[in-house]
Amino acid sequence: MDLTEEILLKEGKMLPVMEHFYTLQGEGHHTGKAAYFIRLGGCDVGCHWCDVKESWDPELHPLMDTVEIAEIAASYCKTIVLTGGEPLMWNLEILTKRLKELGCQIHIETSGAYDMSGTLDWITLSPKKTGLPKEGIYKVANELKIIVFNNHDFTFAEEQAAKVSENCKLYLQSEWSKRNEMYPKITDFILANPKWQASVQTHKYLNIP
């Protein structure tokens, strides 16, 4: 990456885009809705069970003009999901400004480990033990999504739920490889704690991106 690209990246005029695609939202509150996903490269949270580890190194992914990717996305759909990697590693001001000009609703899926940027309509906070969220994101999160990999994650879920607003929706989602083991436990936990809901990676069952 040359100096000019570094400056454009810092300003948010270019972003490392791993992939972008039109599909159905597979998880959480908006499951089943058509959405255009922009997956940004770069993440240092380091979850060992991450299913997109190829997103971690931003230098593996081409820099794209931010306005161009916004206009491509908006031409397909007005619901845009920013994901990663960790999208908040980057300056999202220019991207979200252009998307809003194009009439879009902007969702983000984030660990919350970085400061907020940009204009966002729906914030999915998925905290990770390896890089806890910034305190400020808890009160603005619209949904809290805890990935359940082991039994301790239920304790972690309650600790995180205590920090979000009372209007934040609470979801438990099994890590995919543990789904046969963890969903029975998730079911029992939700029956005992009905403020929670189950989230399932329906896109994997539908065999779509």
TrEMBL record:
EC number: 4.3.99.3
Stored Pfam families: Radical_SAM
Keywords assigned: 4Fe-4S, Iron, Iron-sulfur, Lyase, Magnesium, Metal-binding, Queuosine biosynthesis, S-adenosyl-L-methionine
Uppermost EC category: lyase
PANTHER family, alphabetized: 7-CARBOXY-7-DEAZAGUANINE SYNTHASE
Assembly: Homodimer.
Protein function: Catalyzes the complex heterocyclic radical-mediated conversion of 6-carboxy-5,6,7,8-tetrahydropterin (CPH4) to 7-carboxy-7-deazaguanine (CDG), a step common to the biosynthetic pathways of all 7-deazapurine-containing compounds.
Protein name per UniProt: 7-carboxy-7-deazaguanine synthase
